[in-house]
Amino acid sequence: ATMLAPSLAILRRSAASSSRIVGAARHLTGGSANISVDHYSSGWKIDDIADFTKEGKFHIKTYNKISEEGLKQFPEEKYEIKPSEWDAFNAHAILLRSHKLQESEVDVSVRAIARCGAGTNNVPVARMTELGIPVFNTPGANANAVKELVLCGMLLGSRRVVDGINHMKELGAAGQARELVEKDKAMFGGRELKGKTLAVVGLGHIGASTARDAAALGMDIVGYDPGLSIDSALKLPREITLVDSISSAVANADYISLNIPYIKGSPKQGGTHGIFGNDVISHLKSDAVILNFARGELVDSDAMKSFLDSGDGRYVTDFPDDVCWDHKNAVVLPHLGASTEEAEDQAAAMAANTIRDYVETGAIKNSVNFPETTLPDRPANSIRMTVVNKNIPGMLAHITEAFAKADLNIIQQINHSRGDIAYNVLDIDPTSNGGDGICLKDLQRELTMLEGVLSSRVLFDCPGAGYARNIEGSYFI
Fold first, then answer.
1. pTM for this structure?
2. Mean per-residue pLDDT for 270-294?
3. Are the beta carbons of 288 and 323 closer than 8 angstroms?
């Protein structure tokens, strides 16, 4: 796949002629040093460059309606929010919820994408990784909202509440509600949660919270999660029994809550598509209640229908199901898991703060494709530069060599990698070359155009400026 004009929206605005390439150096002042960096001076062929290149603020493009409480995390003096409906092509970051992001909507100037939610299936993460753009999510922001719906689902699966409501509407329409309300209640008998066993499959933010609150209701908890983190383990109830397989977890459970991510591919291929199929369902009690507020694709619908047909088991989910949607033992809700004001506020605020941390300081938290990078404060009067490169041998040596050639001392340096991506953060002393000022234009170009480098940034008190990209050997800054 190419990285040039056909795939990036910003370049679609290029003029027919390539003769007009406009830009200027930007001078930053801090402490005792004057720092000069390039800003929109290379690679651009845009007629309205004067309007396009206004700096001084970070521009955040939003898709979907983003919570105002979340947007308040962006200080007005440093950030400008631009809804996608605007003709805004110079975004520095993208904030979205459910919008299915296309590569053509990701401008060359975009350096970060954050989704207000845990899943990132609506973002082309693999392609963004190739382009060197971190994608962030908000794990745990909607945990309480989903947990409460899981608890509600257990009650719906225990007492035939929905059937009872519909029956009362029918009686009311016939004028028989008062006459039959006591007689007909026997049609909707159920059971209590206390003393029953809940199997929690997946013990992340939602699973751990569900386990803890279900234990408080007097339930016995069995848990399964091969990737249980220390943070989640500390949130589990002391009485939980941990087992080593899904089948072991569900074998004697009255209720099963699925809380695992969806990964394309079958379980044999390392994915989770249809992981709750015949192999697992064959171990269920005949009256077990399955709660799926994670992903619809986790459940093999045909296998689930066979289970519901064969006994008094129940299936409660907030994902559409083309097979079980009208089954008398299924309760299919709209996708309500995270649809609370509190969850939307918290997810938007978390997404906004991860973007702020990254664009302002270079720190990376809650990224699905970049390495977690916690950074110390930038030393006084230093310049912070970041470099994103392919994770291949020898890159770190080439990067540090470029600073050495410029006679610049590296005060502190961090290098982290994840999969095919490596991320470098370097704080440099602008006075170490013996002069009163420093021109970073040549250094940034040399760094960015190293084979294997995808992008670089200069972080020095000028929002929006100092970002450079290497796009198939062409320099964009």
1. 0.79
2. 96
3. no
